[in-house]
């Protein structure tokens, strides 16, 4: 498994008491698998992503990323693991305004230590994969919202990570562009054998995912029988 969360509990201090954001959560994601986590606001989605990204150490439980037991690592070696093996996509693309699409990818590939002569060709291939052939030299202001999200996806993949963690990728997009971005995430997950986790409260585009789990009050319920059940459960959780 590229992502293995075992029996994760995370509590935050809250005045004189604590809030349990994740309550004995277990999740396994294999290479080439797109796993969506749906849940209402406050259910623990961001906390789960932050734990999987090794940005927060859980109160208890075990996190393995790409075969590495994160508990055995120093802060510096976790930072290296994050940089080299984990692609993180935040809701807002956070692209650098002054850089062209290809340069956004080259910066990441450089930080990940990819050899200079491989970087440019790989960046071009990735931009073509996400449908931006011919737009490599455009800056963010000359791209649409959907295109910026595509650069965001390609940038997360620059340098060949094993794991992709995605926070609300469709939140700022209309239905059609949201569907396209989700389809693209499924495509790159399968093509690059990534272990991908997408957290979302948007249940419209789950058909493109391989697994759906529902997060409710910090507890994760897996639905092997498919996304339809998960959507019904999520609707129940909201109502
Ligand atoms: N830094 C923090 N300190 C205290 N409580 C926190 C902190 N971060 C999150 N929480 C609490 O933990 C619970 C889970 O929050 P989290 O942000 O992970 O949920 P979420 O599903 O991502 O919500 P949203 O969709 O609104 O971002 C909530 O009760 C929240 O108030």
Automatic annotation (TrEMBL):
GO terms assigned for molecular function: ATP binding
Pfam family name, one: ABC_tran
Keywords: ATP-binding, Nucleotide-binding, Transport
Listed SUPFAM superfamilies: P-loop containing nucleoside triphosphate hydrolases
Annotated InterPro entries: AAA+_ATPase, ABC_transporter-like_ATP-bd, ABC_transporter-like_CS, ABC_transpr_LolD-like, MacB-like_ATP-bd, P-loop_NTPase
The ABC transporter domain, residue ranges: 3-239
Name of this chain's protein: ABC transporter ATP-binding protein
């Amino acid at each position: 498994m590229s992502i293995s969360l075992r029996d994760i509990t995370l509590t935050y201090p809250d005045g004189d008491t604590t809030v349990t954001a994740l309550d004995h959560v277990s999740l396994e994601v294999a290479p080439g698998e797109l796993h969506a986590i749906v849940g209402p606001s406050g259910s623990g989605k961001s906390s789960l992503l932050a734990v999987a990204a090794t940005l927060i150490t859980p109160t208890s439980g075990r996190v393995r990323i790409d075969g590495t037991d994160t508990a055995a690592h120093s802060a510096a070696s976790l930072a290296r693991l994050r940089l080299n093996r984990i692609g993180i996509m935040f809701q807002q693309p956070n692209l650098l305004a002054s850089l062209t699409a290809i340069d956004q990818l080259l910066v990441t590939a450089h930080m990940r230590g990819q050899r200079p002569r491989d970087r440019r060709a790989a960046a071009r291939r990735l931009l073509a994969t996400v449908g931006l052939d011919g737009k490599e030299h455009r800056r963010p202001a000359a791209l649409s919202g959907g295109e910026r999200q595509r650069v965001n996806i390609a940038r997360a993949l620059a340098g060949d990570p094993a794991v992709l963690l995605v926070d609300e990728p469709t939140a700022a997009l209309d239905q059609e562009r949201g569907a396209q971005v989700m389809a693209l995430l499924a495509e790159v997950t399968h093509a690059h054998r990534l272990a991908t986790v997408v957290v979302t409260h948007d249940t419209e585009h789950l058909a493109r995912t391989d697994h759906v789990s529902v997060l409710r009050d910090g507890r994760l319920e897996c639905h092997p029988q498919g996304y339809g059940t998960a959507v019904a459960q999520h609707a129940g959780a909201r109502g």
